[in-house]
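#onboarding

Welcome to the new folks! Below is a worked example of what a typical request in this channel looks like: someone posts a single protein sequence, and someone else replies with the predicted structure as tokens. Don't worry about understanding the tokens yet, we'll cover that in week two.

Example request:
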Amino acid sequence: MPAAAIEEFVLRALPEPEDDGPSAAARPAASDKPNPLDTLWRGSEWARAPASNWPSGHAALDGELPGGGWPGHGLTELLQPLEGVLECRLLAPALQRIMAAGKPVVLVGTPVQGRLALAPHLAGWRQAGLDERQLVWIQAETSAERLWCAEQLLKANACGALLAWLPQARPEQMRRLQVAALGHEGPAFLCRHERAAEQASAAPLRLLVRPGEDWSLAVRVLKRRGPQHEGWLSLPAVPAAMAGLLTPRLRQPHLLWPQRPGSVPAGVAAAGVLAEPGVLSAASLLCDEEPADAHVHALGRAAVAAAAGVRGE
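Example response:
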């Protein structure tokens, strides 16, 4: 069949255009088609909010997170100078809501401080308002075991929230976990040392967390699906075990320290705890997670007492 005959046959098969009526006015012109570039996400703009998120319990932090809370369907990486110290204080408000909804919180592995592997301090989690009946701890020793457990839990969407300590995860392993987390509705937190900030990571949200001044937490958003974050956030986070014991004077211990530039309280130096000036306070030595070495914990209490000018009180 000639090409002209084929074209005529197709044109006859098409419906006649309607020039009158409201449908003609509503019909978009060819020039009104959306520009594909308008559908692209630019790094300087906020991405679409995740399908599920949970308020962190810290208003200043929620204002810097896409969707206004901890996101689901993706990894959240928590980097800190000392593992096992700040997780409970930062995450407790959100984990309370998840547990109240009847969903379990699963801990994979244990934080490592030096050569010590620290078991979760159940009393501290209980004092933070977390229900131990909704808390599951998987004691995975090796890095391979932790990675396998975390991946299977994410794939099965088996928990309300996942908290795993993966200090030695490689970039390709992080990508594998991120793919598994896409189908997990609850937040998934990976705790690592702050040195990991120099490595590439597939986690869409990365936070650097350090002890702050006067029982606060200093948080910096290293990576998010939105504009770059500058500076540090100061989040009030008094350890639950200390909230009812601190007097107004001891809630601001920096006022009791010598104000010499560059000085470090003697008690803190004796305990061997040093960090970036203006970020760490002696208050951070007391936390809900008690180290396995009782001598180290006692030394930490003595350092706080010495720094605050309290002698045996």
